[in-house]
Amino acid sequence: MRIRALLKGALTFVPGAPALLPKPPPGSTTATSYYYGVWLKHLGLLAANGLDTSPTVVAELGPGDTLGVGLAALLCGADKYYALDLLAYTQPRKNLAVLDELIALLSKRTPRPDKGFPEFAYSRGGELFPTEVLTDERLARASSPARLAHLREALGSDTPRAGPIVVQYRAPWDDAAVIERDSVDLVVSQSVLEHVDDLDTAYRALYQWLRPGGVMSHLIDLRSHGLTKEWNGHWSISDPMWAVMRGKRSFLINREPCSAHLEHIRRCGFEILYVAQRRGAAGIGRARLSKRWQPLSDDDFSCNSVFIQARKPTGQA
Description:
This protein is α/β, with parallel strands linked by helices. The protein has one domain: Vaccinia Virus protein VP39 (Rossmann fold), CATH 3.40.50.150. Helices cover 32% and strands 16% of the residues.
């Protein structure tokens, strides 16, 4: 394990010490092309799996300080976007700048970045832009001058407001009551659910928010997030040592394997429609697994990322 990660966790138990820990630099350094690519990835997989590609109400877990994925969804025709995070640290000026950059990318039908997981071509012609989904007519309607004006107005509002375009930032989102029941068409997240401790409560909230027939689409990164040298080294750490490394950082990672997410999703009543797993290499051997993680299946032990799409059954509430 990395000594620095252990010390950072231990320091959170010392009164006043957390303020001395390194803080991220102000402002987002994430390129707009990343948010663009994430949205096209989720949208393209919805199309590939025969699911609804025209959601009206979209919710995103863990957008961070920039609402790029949600803005891309709105520019592709959604009318309402919920940004759900633990802390409210979005940046309005940055969001407006990202909006302009996203408009330019979509107007040029820019292919999404040719990398990432899972890999697949978006269109029947093998292109990396979903032309069958994002038709010229659809994008023209979504980016009309009047609609863009409403979107800019929604982004500039500090309080929830009614209007043709609605952007609502909810933090914290750990209470299912933050969104009306049966009101969301699509929930997306990108490398977020590995940071959620109470997965059962989280997936039940998603089930409650989604309308019958609504879909959730998640990329879950099961790696150690740099806490250990090997991608799966977090499973070699004993529970007492992990408690020290984690400290009071509830947002760290939950260490749950792929099967745990799938079990929670099924238990909450979802229909799992698509599962893509990426295998890790050059990690720890099974002999180094701590007692808690020794029962890991070979499938879980080798899975370092999973992309899941699941649907709330129709007729369910």
